[in-house]
Design a protein that fits this description.
The complex is a heterodimer of chains A (149) and B (192). By secondary structure, chain A is α+β, with helices and mostly antiparallel strands. Chain A has four helices and seven strands. Chain B has one domain: Arp2/3 complex 21 kDa subunit ARPC3 (Orthogonal Bundle). Classes of the chains: A alpha+beta (149), B mainly alpha (192).
Chain lengths: 149, 192
């Protein structure tokens, strides 16, 4: 496109746009399919693993009901944008009836609470402000220390 | 702020005033959209997932001046980048958190870079550029998230974010296109 050309504006939709959209949709569907296959392969007992700042806090069986409060470490208030009451950064994790959820959290966005229940291997709950990851893992990964990293 | 080159500003051309006016108008527009977005619970518990409505303002700015001439395009990119920074900082303080601002900036800038690059190739329409921008935004945010929590486990969200970015990007591109055909293309007044 050069100045004065008849092509004043970029066209709204080109064939390339459709190809791009199609490729992206196929790619995401393929990834979904792969993760579904991987989750379906392990039907054995599943565990809940909680990581804070990339470090494993602990692993709990999904079959045993439990409630516990996970504190975000206290030295990160400034980064998280929390000034007042920063010491109270906590997420309450509930394991019940073979599912896991975050019932309460005082992070700014509460996306972890909105996420709802997880139960299938590979599913995760993330609380970015608290750098907390709660994931469902299969039995073979529960024993080994973080294969994925 | 928008297009503040010493010489053109002092000459006081019509282009300068219009550029400032457009920047302000679209910044306000982006903030209004950010407010609307904050009212719509779309994310389904996936961190970083948003409709990306304010990106409509950025796409509009990017393509509005695309009537040729390197000068006009460079200015379009600069205006888009400026509105991008301002709308994120302002919307962050108004409706979000400081944490959200830092997080959004990463996504927005990678997204803008990809959109500018695709626009310059001239092989894609507004919709394609917008789709790439939406996907790039989500990819960058997910990358930052992986870095923050130091766990690759959250890549579990990648397909959802990819799909969402494609969808919202397409919607925004089509909307932007519908608006763009109704805005007269601005001619270059001053070509040095």
């Amino acid at each position: 496109m050069r100045s004065g050309g008849q092509q004043g504006t970029t066209p709204l939709l080109r064939k390339n746009d459709l190809l791009l959209a199609g490729a992206l949709v196929l790619l995401s569907l393929g990834m979904l399919f792969l993760s579904a296959v991987r989750a379906g392969n392990r039907q054995e007992e599943t565990w809940i693993r909680i990581l804070r700042d990339g470090e494993e806090i602990g692993v709990w069986p999904l079959s045993a009901d439990a409630v516990f409060t996970v504190p975000a470490s206290a030295d990160r208030e400034v980064v998280e944008g929390r000034i007042a009451g920063g010491l109270s950064d906590v997420n309450t994790v509930v394991i019940e009836n073979g599912t896991c959820r975050v019932s309460e959290a005082d992070c700014p966005d509460r996306i972890c609470v909105e996420r709802g229940r997880i139960s299938v291997s590979g599913e995760t709950i993330v609380c970015l402000p608290h750098r907390l990851v709660i994931e469902v893992i299969g039995a073979e990964r529960a024993g080994v220390d973080d294969v994925s990293n | 702020m928008f297009q503040t080159d010493g010489e053109t500003a002092s000459r006081g051309t019509a282009g300068t005033g219009r550029s400032v006016a457009w920047g302000g108008l679209l910044l306000t527009f982006a903030l209004a959209l950010a407010y609307v977005e904050s009212c719509i619970p779309f994310f389904f518990g996936v961190p970083g997932m948003k409709l990306g409505l304010p990106n409509l303002a950025v796409v509009l700015l990017l393509f509005r001046r695309n009537d040729g001439g390197k000068n006009g395009r460079a200015r379009a990119v600069r205006d888009a980048a400026m509105v991008n920074i301002l709308r994120i900082v302002l919307a962050g303080f108004l409706f979000g958190s400081l944490f959200g601002i830092l997080f959004s900036l990463a996504g927005a800038f990678f997204s803008l870079a990809v959109m500018v690059w695709l626009m310059h190739t001239g092989r894609f329409g507004v919709t394609g550029v917008s789709i790439a921008g939406g996907v790039a935004h989500n990819a960058a945010q997910l990358a930052v998230a992986v870095f923050l929590v130091k766990t690759s486990g959250i890549l579990y969200y990648a397909p959802f974010l990819l799909l969402a970015g494609t969808l919202t990007g397409a919607l925004i591109g089509l909307t932007a296109g519908a608006v763009l055909v109704r805005i007269p293309v601005e001619k270059q007044e001053e070509e040095k």
